[in-house]
Amino acid sequence: xxxxxxxxxxxxxxxxxxxxxxxxxxxxxxxxxxxxxxxxxxxxxxxxxxxxxxxxxxxxxxxxxxxxxxxxxxxxxxxxxxxxxxxxxxxxxxxxxxxxxxxxxxxxxxxxxxxxxxxxxxxxxxxxxxxxxxxxxxxxxxxxxxxxxxxxxxxxxxxxxxxxxxxxxxxxxxxxxxxxxxxxxxxxxxxxxxxxxxxxxxxxxxxxxxxxxxxxxxxxxxxxxxxxxxxxxxxxxxxxxxxxxxxxxxxxxxxxxxxxxxxxxxxxxxxxxxxx
Length: 276
Ligand code: AMP
Ligand code: MN
Ligand code: MN
Ligand code: MN
Prior knowledge:
Radius of gyration: 18 Å
Strand content: 15-25%
Bound molecules: adenosine monophosphate, manganese (II) ion
Largest sheet: 7 strands, mixed
Number of strands: 7
Distance between the termini: 10 Å
Structural class: alpha/beta
């Protein structure tokens, strides 16, 4: 059964509406599907209705932006209550400041000779309050400064490159607590993407587990096959369940539904206790 527990709609930095994402997932053979927009729950009602229409089981999700020891890491919440007001209020606080950060990013890009990035990013954001690096990456690709959005995240928008502005997101333990208090399960997203040393990864996994984290993503569009094996071993070693999701953002933007391998059957999947 194809279970995909991580992706985005235009409610955050995805390119498609929640119902369109649902259709795309269903056509690719996904049977159990979660929409996990960044720091936002607004797409879940539309996603659930569309998923049921398409014959998929739906899992309410969210991906929370976290600052941890100077790194940005992401924590996915699965089976959260989409009506939990305290979670919604906490996420609103995390989202705050994106417009101001976008202005600072555009100033930095202007200093590097690229004009119009603020308007260009906002034009591409369905919800201006959720303007993200992805919208800047799409602008940079559209004006031909980079080959595609991947290339944008190599030459711009990352630490040490033009257009990068550090930001304070949620604290790790707080994000996990919000998810647990909303009845959900906390999953460390794409751990292979953070570029952490073995020692720092150990500290992150320990801290995440102590905070109540239950699973880590093993098979994700952000990992190489070698990383599937590496994080499968870490999940077993630390006693985490394992999760799987494409992290789909849009057509021709990297990961697609229905293309990733299944989880290693030796792992305990995050959905083991779910009634599927
Ligand atoms: P933000 O929350 O504004 O910092 O934007 C983060 C988003 O940028 C992530 O959710 C990804 O969608 C995208 N992103 C970050 N790093 C990369 C990367 N190396 N390649 C492609 N997309 C990336
Ligand atoms: Mn994203
Ligand atoms: Mn992420
Ligand atoms: Mn994501």
